[in-house]
Amino acid sequence: MPTRQQVHNFAAGPSPLPTNVLEEAALGLLNYEDIGMGICELSHRGKEFKAVIEGAEADLRELLQIPDNYTVLFTQGGGTGQFSATVLNLLAAHRQAHPVPAEEFKPPILDYVLTGSWSSKAYAEAQRLCAAPFPNCPSFGEPRIAASTKSSSWTRLPSKDEYKFSKDAAYIYYCENETINGIQFPHDKDSEEGGFPFDLIPEGVNLVADYSSSFISRPIKKFEKHAIIYAGAQKNLGPSGVTVLIIRNDLLIDTTKIQNELGCLPCLPITYEYKILSDNKSLYNTPPTFPIYVSALVLKHLIKNKGGLKGLEDINREKSQLLYETLEKAEKQQKAKLVVRDSNARSWMNVTFNIEGDSEKEKKFLEGAENKGFKQLKGHRSVGGIRASLYNAVAFESVKLLCEYIEEFCEL
Ligand SMILES: Cc1ncc(COP(=O)(O)O)c(C=O)c1O
């Protein structure tokens, strides 16, 4: 039976958490701050949990330098919940900004940038929610593909001239890091060099970003160009069960009022309305108290022990560089192949590759890895192959040992 110290966990999510945080959380689960009750046994409206959630927000604001005109919310439903919530809230915001009578209503365009499986799922959900409720009536919105790299099997990002944004879209949506395929927008490049084309966003169009698998791993590029940034916690922040939303304040819309007064909007489930969540400081209904508690501990740990966002950026760059260099060496000798062909588009968080040769070879690689304590390296079930996820809690030493194993297995 391996101990925690003997295991190197490269899971894509839920992912490893810092051991010292889990030790503290285990104590808090039994007896939070010596009050004789565990954190999960306390009211979410009591003073203890209030301090936890307020501390988490303050630390997140400090870590990401979140401007005052953005609201931070902790909610449930995961990234998938936000595929729906972003559509419904932003359709309401667009309707509020265009209060024409129902007879003159024209469904707004929703522009989606498709770079992998998750942005494609978000697009599919927008199509589902926008569909006309009955024949001979307009749809609620028109989701469109503003750019797509599907024809490359998601092995690159769009080039600047491939983006076609509509000037009056209700919003533009993108996924900053595609966890399954291992594609990420480079944060140190501008749009000419393959970065996200922030300069092409039409004036006044809202930008939505799914940051689920790269949240707090490095700075968010052009933060203030975004209207909504969201992330499921279970990669870099905490246990699954809590979703973090960062929303520009003008998008906290009373959707029921807009629907009643103007119509032409789909109905929005109450716990998905950003204004309701914000008016109730993330406590409209019972929040996932334990995941929020652990996330709060992780944030403190990142600020105190990991050098904040700059420290995380530096170490995450180093980890991914080392692994990509090793795999490039293996690729030159036809022993392995990186999935993402465009090196600008390679994810710092999810490194995807194949072992060259027949399928037995890859199986052998994974078995050997497992025996040496390198866990959860198998690629996503939809694509196969190998995926090493290098989230914040994965130590540099673990990546170094994995690289040594790759060198040994591939006889480099
Ligand atoms: C980038 C991205 N977006 C969305 C999701 C969906 O998140 P959830 O499973 O929390 O609904 C995932 C899940 O891994 C993801 O990696």
UniProtKB/TrEMBL annotation:
Pathway: Amino-acid biosynthesis; L-serine biosynthesis; L-serine from 3-phospho-D-glycerate: step 2/3. Keywords: Amino-acid biosynthesis, Aminotransferase, Pyridoxal phosphate, Serine biosynthesis, Transferase. Its cofactor is pyridoxal 5'-phosphate. Residues 8-92, 150-402 form the Aminotransferase class V domain. It comes from the Eukaryota. Its EC number is 2.6.1.52. NCBIfam families: PRK05355.1 (NF003764). Belongs to the class-V pyridoxal-phosphate-dependent aminotransferase family. SerC subfamily. This is phosphoserine transaminase. It comes from Kwoniella dendrophila CBS 6074.
